[in-house]
Amino acid sequence: MSTTDQRRAGLAKAAEVADYLKTTPAHLANLRFLGTGPAFVKLGRSVRYRWSDVDAWVQANRQTKSAR
Asked: Which of 7, 14, 39, 52 maximizes the CB count within 10 A of its CB?
């Protein structure tokens, strides 16, 4: 299993997901608050993301044309 596959198989910290999405952890926190971001897991106070949930969220937000 490659390093990328190993990373993608586990849970990611908000900072890792923010880096992947080219945004900030604060923006991800806002999306969690609004309920519009990728699904996440709470482990005590820690927030983690499954990479499969992040990928599914990206696909669900795919657009084929701009809104007017």
From this structure: 14
Output DSSP code: residue 42.
Answer: E
β-strands 41-43, 46-50: how paired?
antiparallel
pLDDT at 1 over 80: no
Which residue matches tokens 């990206």?
A: 58
Is pTM beyond 0.90? Reply is no
Please state the domain extents for the chain: 6-60
Contact 40, 49 (CB under 8 A): yes
Assign domain 6-60 one CATH number from 1.10.540, 3.40.50, 1.10.10, 1.10.287.
1.10.10
